[in-house]
Amino acid sequence: MPRRFSATPYLFLAPALLVIGVFILYPVASVVFYSLTDYDIVRPPVFIGLENYQRLFADATFWKALTNSIVYLVATPIIIVLSIALAIAVNRRLRGVQLFRALYYVPAVSGSIAIGISWRWLFDRNGVINGVLLWLGAIRQPIQWLAEPSLVLPIAILLTIWAGIGYYAVIFLAGLQNIPEELYDAARIDGCNELRKHWHVSLPGLRPQIVFVFIISSLAALKVFDEIYVLTNRTGGILDSGTTMVFYLWKQAFVLSHAGYASAIAIVLLVLTLGFSIVNVRLLERGTDTA
Amino acid sequence: MKTRKHLALGLAAVLAVGACQSSAPASSGPASAPASAVTSPSAAPSTAESASPTAAASASAAPLAADPAEAVIPNVEQGATVKFWTFYLSPTFDDYIKATIARFEQTYPGVKVDWEDHQATFQDDLKGAFAAGSAPDVINLSVGEGWVSDYATKDLLLPLDDKVPAAVKDIYYPGLWKEQLVGGKNYQFPWYQGISVELINKRLYEQGAGLSAADFPKTVDGLPQVCQTIKDKTGTVCDIRLTVSDLLSQMVYEGNVKVMSDDGKSFTFDSADGVAWLKMYADMVKAGTVDNTILTTNDDRVGLLLFSAGQAAFYQTGPNLIREVKSNNSQLYGDLAVVPAPVGKSGVVGKGLMGISVKADTKYPNAAIALAQYFTNPRSMVEFAQQVAVYPSSAKAYEDPFFASTPSAIEDSARPIAKDIVSKYADIVPTIPKKADVNDIVLHAVEDALFNNVDPQKALTEAVAKANALIK
User: Looking at the partner chain, which of A40, A117, A226 has a beta carbon nearest the beta carbon of B23?
Assistant: First the structure.
């Protein structure tokens, strides 16, 4: 007997599908369309086929931005290692540990623009870093940190790491508190010292959190914008030293009015992050299977 | 245990709030506007605080009666509602703008004005409005930043020469009316003008470096020697800015560089003049006498903040921003000297600052032209100049006794010489096709020469080749 069609499930799905359609699918489809056009925002787009993509391959600044974004991924393993260390450090009953946990979480609740400005002040000509180095006699003249092309990206990465550790450490802390205490007791009986105890018990126990943090922090690193925008005063740094994919996308769209070209960059970024996400999700599934 | 937990949470909350609050002063500066593009807020009169004492007085005064003689545009459409956008004028100048609009509506009965002020996102908002077909009829555009030519080349603005009576055009200084012509046509009413001055920190410049403010270089090519002396004597570097959003313009004014061929079909800025101009800056960077961050920033406020902190011997800006120095560092304000900014090899002191344009497809062209003209007429300009250190664009405005009065505050010290300077303003830069893209090419060449040890001649020649390919 044929099943009768029922509209009920579709009606239940409709609100969610509508939201996804309006706020995700339509914008993505629009960007794909604009990437095939010459569009300066103020005049109607003109279809030019794949010209924007061809231009990308010959654009040295695009490759520089892509390279910088990939270099930025170096922040991910550093964040993971430091966050785990911090989580382990505060996962004990010590005097004042709650205050310490609250303090290292402060960057996570502060605005990225505010943090960026604070760091710019630190590295200014008359900033704290130069002040300390001059006081110590380590330098005779202030260093122009943010005007030194080789230093812009490392400083931005340092900022991202500093601002992110607290947030990720809370995730690891939650993971650590789910590891049964008996496992640590067993490791202790087996003769493990503190370091080996964490190596053999904490790290395997944190595997799902590590994979999760790896996914979100690597995607965040690929999409970094605020730090560069503020630290370089909207220039991307001398010789494009701090220009990342998203910053270059913004510059093309809103400084040079090449919204079509910027859309092509956005599509490349989308493919890149999608690839990363697929790899990471696979890793996550494997981690869950073995856990 | 619970008490400690609450204490910890409370402290964290205080720290978080403190962290947010500590960013507040800076957020009024460059970083508050992630979407802003090339705009330099300092191009507009500062809205940081109430202007001068005269501002408070006139702002609170009731609007003066309309003068029928101000109705100079004929055939204004009855029942028109004209949308008007300004850049960075609210809230400090709300009273002035509203009073002028009220007077305009009395002068041209039947016309209504719908005014909005846009700030850091002005350019993005305007582009979006044009795209959506809802752009304002009358738009305050920066001449200095090249916005008028940007929009005019896209056929978005109304050419004014044929639409404005000759007697009205003659009100304005010819150099200002004709600046930023596109295809030989004018697209803006010259509005308020700025004057570049050098603010000098006498403590560093005179007492530290042993120089005299009175002998500050009159021409740009005197700056390298002054910066070398300052560095040798005080260890401080100079805060000098390249106009990174319009480098070809700076080449023309400072280096007298011919940037385009006469037929406008190829670039020529890799000439000996161009190379000499770039080499001057490259030598300063090599000698370590300038702050490289300030040199390449597109934000006037970054250098102004360092100067306000007493970290720079001199800084070039508008006199309207002196009061920011005063509010940030009253001690430095007492040690300030103000001298005219040095001129370049072109001998031209500068170009205009702000204009008012009319949208090309406005429904009410005459009403829109009338409003744009009204804000730029001598009476409106004098009233604006009484609020803040900006200067009118017409000779008649300077006949007002206000400009003959002796200023008491240092921020008004340019007032007596303003007429002489503004009357000589001229845009001597040819219309640059694909200006933003060409500027980006030139910026890369300049940065290569300054920071990448590329020979200035090679950098500029390669840039010319790329720019020529772009406009083929």
Answer: A117
| Amino acid of residue B302 | V
Nearest to A113 among B31, B437, B452 (CB): B31
Contact by Cβ (8 Å): B356, B140: yes
- Hey, which residues 167-206 in chain A have their CB within 8 Å of chain B? none
Average pLDDT over residues B313-317: 94
CA dihedral over B96, B102, B105, B107, signed as positive or negative: negative
In this prediction, residues A141-146 reach a mean pLDDT of: 91
* DSSP state string for A46-110: EE-TTHHHHHHHH-HHHHHHHHHHHHHTTHHHHHHHHHHHHHHHHSS--TTHHHHHHHHHHHHHS
Q: Which pTM does this prediction carry?
A: 0.82
pLDDT, tens digit, 9 for 90 and up, residues B43-81? 456 544 333 333 333 333 445 577 888 999 999 999 999
Number of Cβ pairs < 8 A linking chain A and chain B: 131
Helix axes A97-109, A149-176, angle to 10 degrees: 130
Residue-level pLDDT at A1: 64
Residues in chain B: 472
Q: Are B48 and B27 in contact (CB under 8 A)?
A: no
Helix, coil or strand: residue B391: strand
Sorting pLDDT into bands at 50, 70 and 90, what band is A95? confident
**Could you tell me the two tokens for B77?**
């459409």
Closest CA of chain B from A151, distance in Å: 13
Inter-chain touch A147–B452, beta carbons under 8 Å: no
CB A75 within 8 A of CB A221: yes
Paired tokens of B413: 């010290």
Q: Which residue has the higher pLDDT, B327 or A65?
A: A65
Measured distance between the N- and C-terminal CA atoms of chain A, rounded to whole angstroms: 45
Tell me B262's DSSP state: T
Q: Using alpha carbons, select from B138, B157, B137 the residue that is nearest to residue B147.
A: B157
Q: What is the pLDDT of residue B294?
A: 92
Q: Quick check: A106 contacting B, CB < 8 Å?
A: yes
Q: State the DSSP H helix or E strand holding residue B469, giving kind and residue range, or none if neither.
A: helix B456-471
**Interface contact flag, B11 A110, Cβ < 8 Å:** no
Closest to A239 (Cβ–Cβ): which among B9, B436, B451? B451
DSSP β-bridge partners for residue B200: B314, B337
For residue A93, the one-letter residue type is R
Please state the φ and ψ torsions of residue B40, each to the nearest 5 degrees. -115, 105
pLDDT tens digits, A205-215:
998 899 889 88
Q: Among the listed ranges A237-246, B146-155, B165-174, B248-257, which one has the minimum average pLDDT value? A: B146-155
Q: Which of these ranges, A46-60, A174-188, B385-399, B403-417, has the smallest mean pLDDT? A: B403-417
The distance of B444 to chain A (nearest Cα, Å) reads: 7
Distance CA B14, CA B35 (A): 30
- B208: closest CA among B231, B187, B189? B231
CB-based contact A98 B4, cutoff 8 Å: yes
The answer to whether A255 contacts B37, with C-beta atoms less than 8 Å apart, is: yes
Q: Give the pLDDT mean for B81-94.
A: 95
ipTM: 0.85
- CA nearest to B346, candidates B278, B265, B257, B271: B257
pLDDT category of residue A49 using cuts at 50, 70 and 90 = very high
Report the residue from A109, A121, A234 with minimal CB separation from B30.
Answer: A234
Name the nearest CA neighbour of A264 among A33, A24, A23: A33
Tens digit of each residue's pLDDT (9 = 90 or more) over B188-206? 999 999 888 999 999 999 9
Structure token digits, residue B183: 């295809």
- pLDDT above 80: residue B15: no
